[in-house]
Amino acid sequence: MSSSVGAARPNDSHVPRLERYAAPRDSSSKRTRVDDTRTRPAYQQAAPFPFDIFHDDCSQPTEEESIAAFHARLSAIKRVAVHSERRRNAASLEPGHFGIYLIDCEGNEYPFLRFQQAANAAYAALRIAEVYRLGVEFGNFKEPKLIGDPQLLGAVPC
Q1: Is 152 helix (H, G, I), strand (E, B) or coil?
Q2: Taking a C-beta distance cutoff of 8 angstroms, is the pair 116, 26 a contact?
């Protein structure tokens, strides 16, 4: 069995690479960081928004507004949550929606997207969490979260 020294193992691709340090050109003992985007961990690089989450049953008015609201809160977001939701004044026979909420470090929930089907909402939450390295939380789908006016999505925390 022969193994080459320095060869990357196939299952090491998920491990972020550390930043490289270069020896200083002067005689001081300080180390300087090489500013090279190829050697920064993947989670520190800007990731493009996953546009494949916008399905036909997404009831958000426009993608641009949703993405702008998301990027405005991105630095404070710690988790993405999926909740079953129903309007406060709606009849119990009305079909519910499934909402994606952004949860910040203080525990505030901000409504982000709404879907007709649970599968699409779960896929969108998992996809956002994968791209931006966020935690995922699923609410109880049997007991829907009561919401107010659906036009207020993204306006204030719940």
Answers
A1: helix
A2: no
Cα–Cα distance measured from residue 70 to residue 48, given in angstroms and rounded to the nearest whole number: 12
Distance CA 33, CA 35 (A): 6
Tokens of 31: 């180390």
Find all residues with CB under 8 Å of 137, minimum gap 6, and list them.
Answer: 79, 80, 81, 82, 103
Which ranges of 36-95 does DSSP label H, i.e. alpha helix? 63-73
Per residue in 22-61, pLDDT (tens digit) is: 444 444 444 444 444 444 344 444 666 766 676 666 666 5
pTM summary value: 0.58
For residue 103 the two structure tokens come to 């949860």
Which sequence spans correspond to the domains of the chain? 11-41, 51-152
**Residue 15 identity (one-letter amino acid):** V
Q: Which amino acid is at 56?
A: D
